[in-house]
Amino acid sequence: MMFNSNTFKKSALQQLKKNIVSPLLVSFTSLTIIALIIGPNVSKGAYTRLSLPTLILLLILGTLTMAMSSFCIKIATLQRKVTYLDFIEGFSNFTKGFLGSLWMYLWISIWLCLLVVPGFVKAFAYSQMFFVMADHPDIGPIKAMNISKVMTSGHKMDLFLMAVSFAGWLLLSSCTGGILLIWVIPYMSLAYTNAYYYLKEEAFRTGKLTSADFA
Question: CB–CB of 143/103 below 8 Å?
Answer without folding.
Answer: no
